[in-house]
User: Fold this.
Amino acid sequence: MARAHLLVVDDEPSILTTLQKALQLEGYAVDVAGGMRVAEDKIKKRSYDLCLFDVQLPDGDGLSLLESLRGAKNDTPVVMMSGHATIDTAVRATRLGALNFLEKPINTDALLITVETALRLQRAEAEAKALRTQAGTTGELVGDSGAIKKLMEQITRAAKSQASVLVTGERGTGKELVARAIHLMSTRAKGPLEKLNCAALPSELIESELFGHEAGAFTGATKQRRGKFERASGGTLFLDEVGDMPLPMQAKLLRVLQEKEIERVGGSETIKIDARVVAATNRDLVLACEKGDFRADLYDRLNVVPLAIPPLRARREDIPLLARHFLDLAARANDRRDIRIDDGGMEALCAYSFPGNVRELKNLVERLVILTPDDVIHDSDVRNCLPGGASPKATGLYRPGVPFRVLVEEAERIILTDALTHHSGQMAATARALDLERSHLYKKARALGLRGDKSDDDTNE
Assistant:
């Protein structure tokens, strides 16, 4: 762990020297300043883990320096020092956010205990903030189903490694949430999380976005720009919809993953990179490799740790938990804190197939909160907000306006997902139960983006 960096501000050179040496002997990196202006310049140039300010300074006072710090939205922990502090001074310092007040002459033991306690508190608050962020950003992954519990266990294990991760799943299942959870649970959590949607940019711009460019590299490149790989140094780079990356860029990405270095567009300097890659796609990359649309060697490089997110219909038991979670968020956002879903409304939600997965459920619940006139959401309210206004119970999978081919594909996916779940992902057992040839089941499952465990193949069949 990097050692803490402290700033000590006092107008007496002897005190600065004494405090600096005492803190350095304990392993801290220490900068010093003899006045308010010098301290402000140092704070602008770098961030500190803790500051110690004397109350009286030759060009101002420590309380004004603390007030200036907080006014600039800088929440660095601060300890005040004074040889003649009054109660009013201490009260003002506390109101401005000072953690402690040390009286001069400063006892070395008291100083070290105060600094250690302040730094421990800062670390605890940072960890709590990270956990709150993690809880907020992975909220849509909550659930009691075996499928989601297994996924969370896989995420936890994947986060502890430095290997590339490939997240697969249908649209709306929460692939970005999984990537964010991996980052926040990893040793890289304090580093940046950079994101690039490979399907949202023209092919000619992806290279510049990933690797950066030098001034004059192309029309409009008026100054040097660092790319996502550089900006993600020490952290994580999330490549969303990686299956849509053009083949020429796939070759360049492969080289970077192998060599751990890049060159900016228009440049010749080799730049070492330290970014962990998490990629995601809703495409079947195995099939894409067979068709020649995706490089098999890049797939192998990305797919070191595969994570497959189950569709919502494969974990219907999680719908009530998710619906209540989204209801709470939407109710607070729209000032409707008393609204609730009754049993009929929840049954109607659970009966719907949700082809758009968790994202569709979230949008549907928010729509219900906004459009339902009463404080109780009934099954009729749910039916009115479903696509085409269709009742999931009355019409099953049929939805007006949706092509027959799409409806059949959804039905097949639901049947195969439920069957594979029932047989613990075992393809041979599922094929026997459905009276299908295993080769036909493999082909159908692959076309629908489903995966099973081939390890149960019975050579006697």
